[in-house]
Fold each of these.
Amino acid sequence: MWLFNSGITLMDVIMRILAVLIIVFLVLPLHECAHGWVAYKLGDPTAKMAGRLTLNPLVHFDPLGALGILLFSFGWARPVPVDASNFKNPRRDMAITAAAGPISNLLAAILGGLLANLFGLFSFGAASVWISTFFSYYIVLNIGIAVFNLIPLAPLDGFRIAESFIPERFIISYYRHYNIITLLVFLLLFLGVLTIPLVFLENIIYSFVIWLTALPFAFFA
């Protein structure tokens, strides 16, 4: 775990904790609100009636999910309630609703990249290193949350997306063996077997975000 990595400095610790706090209290509420808002636009008022179409962090806060972000670079907020029976096309609309969450994290990462480049145009002395470190953690954590949520495992968003393409008979079989599959996936995560493909995907997305957000500032170089 990063907290026990002897190679990090006090600045790293402070900037990472700050990035985690920003994500927990600003970005994760956006993630959940995005689910609820898209669901509402597609015909399901469940999240709205439950008072979840808000960016109030206290409404969405989950202590275990926040701790997971701090320690393991992935976590969650309280899921917004969604009733797929209110959708015109339940499988398709549920997939769109699920995708809204990870997309919000990717957009947050892009915004972080743009702000990092904007701050990079100015000199803040020694504080420039702190600012750069903060945005690096902020971008990496957002991408990590997006990728983690795209794992096709219930109740993660990735399963809801994949569910729209999987024949119903296989979905029924999946839920019948849900506990075993979940245990196996988390065992693979713990053993690091899934770390390589997940980190590979995160690195690709990170490189793309850095490239994309640097484009508007290229002529200042």
Amino acid sequence: MKLSNEELNLLAILEENHNVSTESMAMQLAISEDDVKNLIKKLEDEKVIVSYPTLIDWNKIEGKETVVAMIDVKVTPQRSVGFNEVAEQIYRYPEVTSLYLMSGTYDLSATVEGKTMREISLFVSNKLATIENVLSTTTHFMLKKYKHDGVIIEGKDDEDRRMVVSP
């Protein structure tokens, strides 16, 4: 779906602060309050705005698609600082949208966004893997998002689709 500049700017405003008044949005966009309300309703009806606080499915908007990867990172902890210094180096990259210390086989879990799979692979090979004390990485590309932060993105949430099992 291709959106106008007004719609894209409105989405950016809502994503930053979903509590902003329609009056304020109208002033920022130089359009009427009624136009703002109509644009919001249209974007909600088309499920571009999925929920509030504003969750936007950017992959439905032409030219705004992103590739998301979850990358497991094995690290050698450093004396007296543990994983903190390596974690700081990783989370400072703009491609990294979240980073967590994990239990299990891998130490850190990073969520990375890019325009293409190649862009993410170059980030891993040129930036992430070259950090001192990073021993290995495993990259998992997100293929489809069904639910995010408790909000169902794709599918019907009111229909029970479990198979009936009877004796």
